[in-house]
Every structure is written in C-alpha cells, then in structure tokens.
Amino acid sequence: AIFEALARADAPRLVLHFVALHHAAATLLYGGTQPQRDRHLPAIQRGAVWCQGFSEPGAGSDLAMLSTRAASVDGGYVVTGQKAWASLAMYADWCLLLARTDPQAAPRKGISYFLLDMTTPGIDVRPVKQATGEEHFAEIFLSDVFIPADCLVGPANQGWQVAQATLAAERGETI
After folding, report:
1. Helices marked H in 12-120 — which ranges?
2. Which of 22-31, 54-63, 74-83 has the highest mean predicted lDDT (pLDDT)?
3. Parallel/antiparallel/unpaired status of strands 94-100 and 50-53
C-alpha cells in the first residue's frame, strides 16, 4: 500500500535511496567524524544517492580478499582497483568504499573505509545488463582516484570493524 501511494504521488523511487538511508547514515553514526556527519546526513535527508563499493571480481563478497588498493599520499589516498555488483552506482553521488591500505597485513586487517565522491576524476562506472534487460548493478573502475584524508571513516587499516557496522545495518541489526 505504501509503494502504491508513492507511485500515485510520482514520488522518487525509494530504491535509489536505500544505501543512503540504511547503510551510509548508519555507518556515519557509528564511525563517522562530526564533520562527516554534518556534511553527509543533511545531504542524505535531501536525497543524495549512495552506492556501496565492497564486492570485487575474484573476491565476490569476501571482504577479506579485497584487491583494490589505497596508497597513502600527502593529503589523502590514491585508490586503484575495481568494484562489482554496486547497486545503482550509475546514479550515485557518493560511494561507501573499502580498499586495502596495508597489503602486508592479515586478510581482515589493513582495510580502510572511505567516503568516495563519485564525481572524482578517475572513476568509470559501467552498468551491468542483466538477463531481464535491466541495469540495476554496475562495475566501478578506479584509476588513481584521489580521496582526501577527511573522507576516511575510522582509523586507517581498521575498515573491517566499520564495514561490520554497515553490514549489521544492512541486516537490520542495531549498531
């Protein structure tokens, strides 16, 4: 009944805002800094679209096997890699992104969690056509993408813990 009422009112499709409302907001409340919350939570309320850059080719949803790399540079990080099955990434303003910042660390360590502005140079989003003809998912290719240091969520190399909070929110658990 709710979805029918929204459709009759020609309201925006809620699916576009699912990651923003459930994953991004919960993540920011759990591990975001106050400036990150001040910037992004009002934008989420205004309708900013977010996607999630966790899964990768060759790793699937096994986050411990991430191969996307983020190298620390002056003022932030430079990220190179690929994400797969990013729901509605072709419409996203921002991305919740996991990348390996310490390749020598144990699989669940050395991962950092970033907020990625999807208008940043070096990002190529390619929709994936499904058998139904729909393009709900996309691949995200990252080529030397600069992410400012203030877009790191939680401490460097501690992204696994932040990601667990995101995934808990995705499953409907309280964080």
Report:
1. 18, 25-31, 34-46
2. 74-83
3. parallel
C-beta separation of 33 from 41 below 8 A:
no
Two structure tokens written together for 57: 């080719």
Q: Is the overall model pTM greater than 0.85, yes or no? A: yes
**Phi first, then psi: what are they for 35, rounded to 5°?**
-60, -35
For the question of residue 4 being annotated catalytic, the response is no
Q: Which residue among 4, 56, 134, 170 is the active-site one? A: 170
Looking at the DSSP bridge assignments, the partners of residue 142 are: 81, 123
d(CA 145, CA 164) in angstroms, rounded, equals 25
Cα(61)–Cα(44) distance, integer angstroms: 25
Q: For the chain, count helices (H), then strands (E).
A: 5, 8
